[in-house]
Amino acid sequence: MLKGIRCETAKCPMERQWRNHPPGMHTWRRGKASNYGIRLREKQKVKRYYGLLERQFMLTFRQAERSRGNTGEQLLVLLERRLCNAIWKLGFASSPRAARMLVTHGQVYVNGRRVNRPSYTVKTGDRISVKDRESSRTMVREQLADRDARTVQPWLQLNAERLEGQVVALPSRDSVQIPVEAQLIVELCSR
């Protein structure tokens, strides 16, 4: 009803069917991604998800190379076991960045000792708790109250009354929620 006369022709900007190309002036020049590009994209996806820099990622990859088993799966398991990730998965923080900040500001205790390194690797049996300070506890309680649909991972156990979590098992490849091909990352980093 509100369309102009031009919309009754094939040149209507609202009804264009040929607009299924990516934006930009030279869209016809875009080609298929190379093998290197595909592998790099997978690595960048993992780095961004866990909030790592290149050096941190490569140190974790070297550690996964030294361990037994499939290197790609070991890499994802090591990244999943980072303290900042465990705190986020427990629901103590709203995002991975908030979890990292919670750890770096000294608000988190592992087995009764303050840990301020987000890269700390949690082990089976570790107890993760919040600092015994009212402001810290209120912040975490609010996050746990807002945590409606997100459930705790099977490798973690949450005690919401005491604001404490425990690592009951090591995470498996199935606990990693991002769709990523670990073998492509291994192929890229092993060169």
Describe it.
The protein has 191 residues and is an alpha+beta fold. It has a single domain (36-171, 180-191), classed as Structural Genomics Hypothetical 15.5 Kd Protein In mrcA-pckA Intergenic Region, Chain A, CATH 3.10.290.10. The protein has helices at 35-50, 54-66, 71-80, 83-90, 96-104, 134-146, 182-189, and strands at residues 108-110, 113-114, 127-130, 156-159, 164-167. Strands 2-1-3-5-4 form a five-stranded antiparallel beta sheet. α1 crosses α7 (182-189) and α4 packs across α5 (96-104). The longest helix has 16 residues, at 35-50. The model has no long low-confidence stretch (mean pLDDT 86).
Q: What's the CATH architecture?
A: Roll
Q: What is the global morphology?
A: flat
SSE string, helix = H, strand = E? Answer: HHHHHEEEHEEH
**Mean pLDDT across residues:** 86
Q: What does the largest sheet look like? A: 5 strands, antiparallel
- Structural class assignment: alpha+beta
The named CATH superfamily: RNA-binding S4 domain
Cα-based radius of gyration, to the nearest Å: 23 Å
Report the count of strand segments: 5
What is the CATH third-level topology name? Answer: Structural Genomics Hypothetical 15.5 Kd Protein In mrcA-pckA Intergenic Region, Chain A
Termini separation comes to 61 Å
**Helix count, DSSP H or I runs of 4 or more residues:** 7
Widest sheet: strand ordering: 2-1-3-5-4
Strand content: 5-15%
> Could you list the spans in which at least 5 consecutive residues all have pLDDT below 50?
none
